[in-house]
Specification:
The protein has about 200 residues and is an alpha/beta fold. About 35% of the residues lie in helices and about 25% in strands. Strands 1, 2, 3, 4, 5, 6 and 7 form a 7-stranded mixed β-sheet that branches. The two termini are about 15 Å apart.
């Protein structure tokens, strides 16, 4: 097995959850965040009639392309680059990050009492090799009252979260059942990520 070029990976994400999950794997990491003039949000715009699985994998690939270009532009030491993206889909509808409190309320009302999918794509660039994986989980929400939704939205937690909730936070109280990867729903599936890093030459127990 090839040995990694460095004893750390670059994490192209500002998500503290992803950093914590890499810590869980005992993988040293350094942030590789976008420059101020990069329009990261533009990468997340869905294409017309794009399926959620295709969307999340495409966006992850675009984010990884941008991160690799950033690494080269900055002249940083070589090391694997890890990127991930999470999306929520209710039927054929992609639920991204809510635009405002009203949008968050509408998303949560749509999810109430129903099962939706949470997809997280992970990609690692190790030299010339690009390794990819996809985690798909199913989440069923409890029946939510209007008051419950309003109270949750008022906490501010839904903002910046795909599907307008965070399963690692207060949003966990809305979830009746999950089938799949809890860490994947959080934003970085530990099992799939460990597999990719092993393929890249990392030693993970």
């Amino acid at each position: 097995m090839n040995k990694p070029r460095a004893d750390f990976v670059y994490l192209a994400s500002q998500s503290p959850r992803r950093a914590q999950l890499l810590d869980l794997l005992q993988v040293r990491h350094q942030p590789l965040l976008a420059d101020a003039d990069e329009d990261a949000e533009a990468l997340e715009v869905p294409l017309p009639r794009e399926a959620a699985t295709a969307y999340v994998q495409r966006v992850t690939g675009l984010k990884l392309d941008a991160a690799v270009a950033r690494l080269r532009r900055r002249g940083l030491p070589a090391a694997p680059v890890l990127c991930a993206d999470t999306t929520v889909a209710l039927g054929g509808r992609i639920l991204g990050k809510p635009a405002d409190a009203a949008d968050a309320h509408a998303m949560l009302a749509a999810l109430s009492g129903r099962t939706h999918r949470v997809m997280t794509a992970v990609a690692v660039q190790a030299g010339r090799r690009r390794l990819q994986a996809l985690s798909v989980s199913r989440v069923r929400f409890a029946e939510l009252t209007r008051r419950q939704i309003e109270a949750y939205v008022a906490t501010g937690e839904p903002m910046g979260k795909a599907g307008a909730y965070a399963i690692q936070g207060l949003g966990s109280a809305l979830v009746a059942h999950i089938a799949g990867s809890h860490s994947g729903i959080m934003g970085l599936p530990v099992f799939e990520t460990a597999q990719l890093l092993r393929q890249a030459g990392w030693h993970i127990p």
